[in-house]
Amino acid sequence: MNRLQLAVAAAKKAGEVTKKYFLKNNFDVERKTDRSPVTVADREAEICLREAIIEAFPDDGILGEEFASREGTSGFRWILDPIDGTKSFIHGVPLYTTLVAVEHEGQSVIGVIHAPATGECVYAEVGGGAFYTIGDEPPVPARVSSCEKLQDALLSTSSVSMIHRVGMYTGWRALSEKCGLTRTWGDGYGYLLVATGRAEIMLDPVMNLWDIASLMPVITEAGGAFTDFLGNETHTSGNCVATNGRFHEEVLRLLHWE
Question: What kind of fold does domain 3-141 have according to CATH?
Fold first, then answer.
């Protein structure tokens, strides 16, 4: 099993762990030092991911949201978010995801976005294309939409309040007024929507590395564009804009820091 195969299989297995708790009300919600929530489902799912990686690739490094980093010697590092959208998970919203990324020498080369509650998974390896599956169905190529005009585009973000907080609401409002539809189908699921052609723009102004590392390979291999708010093609800036690529520069022009 190569790293891409393991990333997909491990994400799906960890997703099954989360489903033991989703909608069951059988867990407590704790608060980390930054006041973000965490549950036993987050921790058990990350343990599941780590065990699979260590067994298959013991020399690889691991960075996860819930536990200490593991140093590696191979040049590969796995970046894990067992539940991206813990707040959605807690409230019984099925749009949370399990995110798995693999960096090689600092470049994100593999990404997996798995939505346990819907059974969807989109994954990619740089140079190998992006693929989409539902449940046990065979994978099909994942492609962004062919929408050419903002007036026909679906724009999404995880949190409008965060956009206010970082001082970019004017740009957000200008962009949303030009788009055909604006929603907050956020976290990793919003990027899954872009990669499978069901949304055209997804953006987040504040992200951790484990939130973002898996997204870039998926979006770009699906034919889209992925940058930070300044137009840099990177997964390390702490913010990102993903589009179908048809009007990415226009989106960046409309967005701006106040």
Answer: Fructose-1,6-Bisphosphatase; Chain A, domain 1 (3.30.540)
Neighbours of 89 (CB within 10 A): 27
**67: its two tokens:** 């536990």
pLDDT digits (tens, 9 = 90+) for 29-81: 888 777 788 889 999 999 999 999 999 999 999 999 999 999 999 999 999 99
Partner residues linked to 201 by β-bridges: 155, 243
Quick one: tokens of 54? Answer: 């260590």
Would you tell me which CATH number, out of the four given (3.60.21.10, 3.30.70.20, 3.40.190.80, 3.40.630.30), belongs to the domain 150-254? 3.40.190.80
pLDDT of residue 257: 56
Per-residue pLDDT reduced to its tens digit, 216-227: 999 999 999 999
Q: Give 9: exposed, middle or buried? Use CB within 10 Å, 0-12, 13-18, 19+.
A: middle
Does residue 53 contact residue 103 with C-beta atoms inside 8 Å?
no
**CA contacts within 13 A on the Cβ side of 126:** 13
Q: Count H helices, E strands: the chain?
A: 9, 14
Average pLDDT, the chain: 95
The pLDDT, as a whole number, for residue 32 is: 76
Q: Where are the domains of the chain?
A: 3-141, 150-254
